[in-house]
Amino acid sequence: SRIQRFGRILNSSHNHGHLASVNIKGFEPKDVSVLVKDRKVTVLAERREERNTPSSKTCNYKRLVKQFSLPPGVSEDEVTCSV
Length: 83
Known about the structure:
The protein is mainly beta. Helices cover 0% and strands 61% of the residues. It has strands at 5-11, 16-23, 32-37, 40-52, 57-69, 79-82. The chain has a three-stranded antiparallel β-sheet with strand order 2-1-6, with no helix packed on it. The model is unreliable at 1-14 (pLDDT under 50).
């Protein structure tokens, strides 16, 4: 089954909270990367599909970028993700 939701979960000893959920319908888990830097979480998903037939060639490209600021009191190393 195709995974359609990508959740960012804050996980620390004193706080378990949900920061964000990003819909990644149309992307495979391998298409998704996450970067946590400068108190921002960036979710990037890219997918390129090429199809060749005897008479034509088509290329589909999808790109999604979402960025979130970390809430006060949450350290960058406390951020985890799940697909």
